[in-house]
Amino acid sequence: MYDYFNGKLVFKAPTHVILEVGGIGYYVHISLTTYSLIKDQENCKLFISFQVREDAHTLFGFATEGERHLFNHLISVSGIGPNTGRMMLSSITPEEIQSAIINGQVAVIQKIKGIGPKTAQRVILELQDKLKKQGDHALLPLPTTTQSVPDEALSALVMLGFQKSQVEKTLATLVQTESDLTVEGLIKAALKKL
Description:
The protein is an alpha+beta fold.
């Protein structure tokens, strides 16, 4: 829902900040890693992970996209909630966590307060392959793939409720006759024929 907030730091503590954005003060939970990166700033940009539970809507903020990306990986593991994920990122650096997971170092993960041997093993088991596949770029979000103009138009028209097979035929005809259409132009032309 939120990607980042960029605003004035009204209040800073090692566990949370109040970030004023557009006249609204947001209470954002942070890790010690983020705190150490933003503590001298008056204005900052925090990458947000918005967590919703039935009893709370909570914002977690990170100084880097990589830290947020790792946080989202960590909380995807059964038994690790947002507060435990933040505790992990406060105890050791994201790079150390990533290295420990990739290299299967249970003892490093287990040293973190609140993480027992079973949870440490589960973190490694569930995340090791994901982080290995991403290699050195695991702390960065995967780049969003850019779709071709006809593919984007197809996705949009299917979301509008049209049959995929019918849309594909219409788009194929349009692309053959007019190859230089933008996504919007292609959608408009297709809507006239559907």
